[in-house]
Amino acid sequence: MKFFANNPFLKILGFWIAGLLTARHFPILLIATGFILLFFLCWSIYLSVKRKYPFDLALSATLASLIFLLSALNYKLQHPSVPSAPVAETHFLGSLLENPTEKPNSFQCLMRIDYTEPDSLIGRKLICWIEKSPSTGNLQVGDQLFCKGRLNRVENRGNPFEFDYKAYLEQQSIFYSCYLKTENITIAGGSPFSIRLAAEKFRNKLLAQLRSQLPGSESFQVISALTLGYRKELMPETRAFFTTTGAMHVLAVSGLHVGLIFMFLLRLSLFLKHIRKGKLIRFILIATFLWLYALITGFSPSVQRATTMFTFLLIAESTNRTNSIYNSIAASAFALILINPDILFAVGFQLSYAAVLSIVYFYPKLEQMLPVRNKLLAYPWQLLCVSVAAQIGTFPLSIYYFNQFPVYFWLSNFVVIPAAFILLSGTLLFFLFSALPPISKILAIGLDFVNTLVLDLLKFISQLPGALVENISITFGQLTLLVSQIVLIIIFIHYKRARLLQLSLLCFVLFQIIGINNKLNLLNQHKLLIYQGKNPTFHFINGRENYLISSDTSNLSPYIYSMAETQLHLHRPHVIPLVDSVTFRNRDILIENQLCQFGNETYLWVDIQKKTKLIKHARGGDKPTGNPQINAN
Fold it and tell me: Alpha carbon of 499 to those of 107, 127, 392, 496, 579: distances in Å?
């Protein structure tokens, strides 16, 4: 296995991930792994003393078991038990880690607890909602506040198929939430100096410059997101254009942006390679600039991933080890997972590394399929190859997590990737010449023109027939089969063995069998889902037909039931208002006044403490049951 011999970090990363997953899902197996490590250790010592074969095998097994256990130990150490939220109101001193975001009835912000009782809460982060008032509207990042409020553990609502908001926040080490009234907040001054807070304040100054010069609010939203990672003011309509066309990756400062800056700095500093210690100077300058850019853009997880990855690639380039790019990529992933094991389960992490690995492997092969010598045609062809290569590695994850596929991703990349380079460099020049108003004004007009042109083109692409394939739903098993099929094809390309291609086709057949079985089950499904909220919503499902019943249909948000609609392959729901005189009947459901006949079950609506409840209607001598099953088959 010469490939793994040349890329040792791939082996280390594999055993490290295995240990992490075992510690997370099967911790009981760690005891057995400890005994296995002890056995291999004793065996290695015995073979070493006796100088017998196979010493290398025993030593390799010992090291693999050790890496496995160290990963599990690292995961456990970084996941101590989270203290319960205090029952009573808590007094605490906290620092704002970001500028508050205005909501309809409050300001939302991220806060770190600097001091409180008990001590176990110190250093914890929490999501805060602050009551609107003239004084709270002026709060800024870095402000330190004396607060009194009730801390609550972040919990999900428990609705079927809902987004796991609790797990999403836990990946960012956020476990608590709090609502603060104006009278319970006192500004204590500024937080102690930290590089991250200083970078956040500097970014806010840059954002203020952009806001004051860009003529259109839409231009500010896109350019601030693309260059500085500020997406809080991005309108849903603008997001939709980028999502539909497969260009959303441009709005998240990540690998594309850091990569463009990385390549630009590499070419700019080529002359340093020819002077004494020039490679070291070049490495320090480029790495420093990349990490400063990461700080200024908010040091988000996507920026951390990209900057770490390109730092390792820079190390490889500086040490003339560019032939081991897979080793550099694995080393960067290992460093990130070592610092934060939960990053392995972040969607962005998985997509980033899937895209990079896919580009590294497939791009050269795609480009060689049609050699283009004309320089005018070479760049578009290379751009198309990069887009297709990235999509090969990411589409299984994309359809699994987002349930959709942008058909014209390749076309949108012809627009957004050159535009990203122009907007990045143009914005940098804008900041450099901010002290010269005439020049900065001309640059701002140019940035606004480019952004408007990009948005118009994306709007056009999003309106093309079949631009977005929606409501694609696959199981984790199907995802595993898709990824396995891609890996087997890669190995087949390398080794040219027919059995590998046969195994790949077997994965495809199994994928189709699982899909057909799921569709048959969904066509015969008979369920009742209940969504909790201010006004409970009842979702009756029979096959693909479904009915939403609520006492307040005017404020019924599609986000409540959209995931169920996607995962269960449902038609558009029939929305029925629950009023005293409601009457609705068809072959699936009968509703009349307070009674509902659905299949073989009869339900009764009653008002309990001004909230609508649904109970099964009594049959004969049976007693009414308090709550129906969430998935009644």
Answer: 60, 53, 22, 9, 64
CB 107 within 8 A of CB 58: no
Q: What is the pLDDT of residues 299-319, one digit of tens each?
A: 777 777 788 888 888 887 777
The predicted structure's pLDDT at residue 620:
44
Phi and psi based region of residue 31 (left: phi greater than 0; alpha: psi -120 to 50; beta: remaining): alpha
3-state SS of 223-278 is HHHHHHCCCCCCCHHHHHHHHHCCCHHHHCCCHHHHHHHHHHHHHHCHHHHHCCCH
Burial class (CB in 10 A: 0-12, 13-18, 19+), 578: buried
Spell out the alpha helix ranges (H) of 140-234: 165-170, 195-213, 217-228
The whole-angstrom separation of Cα 164 and Cα 172 is 13
Give, in order, the Cα–Cα distances in Å from 371 to each of 374, 376, 377: 9, 13, 10
CB of 369 closer than 8 Å to CB of 347: no
- Alpha carbons 273 and 7: distance in angstroms, whole number: 26
Q: What was the pLDDT predicted at 612?
A: 63
Calpha distance 3→326 (Å, rounded)? 10
- CB-neighbour burial class of residue 41 (10 A; exposed 0-12, middle 13-18, buried 19+): middle
DSSP 8-state symbol, 627: S
Residue 531's beta-bridge partner residues? 537
Diameter of the chain by CA atoms? 95
- Both tokens of 380, joined, read 């578009």
Peptide bond into 54 cis (omega under 30): yes
Within 8 A by CB and 6+ apart from 628, the residues are 528, 530, 601, 603, 614, 615, 616
Pair 459, 245: CB distance under 8 Å: no
Residue 247 identity (one-letter amino acid): A
pLDDT of residue 592: 84
Residue 159 to residue 420: CA distance in whole angstroms = 39
* Residue located via tokens 């889902």: 529
Residue 607 forms beta bridges with which residues?
A: 612
Q: Give me the residue label for tokens 């490495």.
A: 283
Q: Give the pair of three-digit tokens for residue 184.
A: 């319970």
Instruction: Give every residue of the chain whose pLDDT is below 70, as ranges.
Output: 1-5, 52-53, 55, 215-216, 320-323, 580, 607-613, 616-633
Contact between 176 and 129 under an 8 Å Cβ cutoff? The reply is no
Is residue 320 packed enough to be buried (19+ CB in 10 Å), middle (13-18) or exposed (0-12)?
exposed
Q: Which residue has the tokens 């007009």?
A: 445
DSSP 3-state assignment of 586?
coil
Q: With contact defined as beta carbons under 8 Å apart, do 125 and 170 qualify? A: no
Report the 10 Å Cβ neighbour count for 505: 12
Interatomic CA distance for residues 542 and 596, integer angstroms: 14
> What pTM value is reported for the model?
0.83
User: What is the distance between the alpha carbons of residues 573 and 296, in angstroms, rounded to a whole number?
Assistant: 45
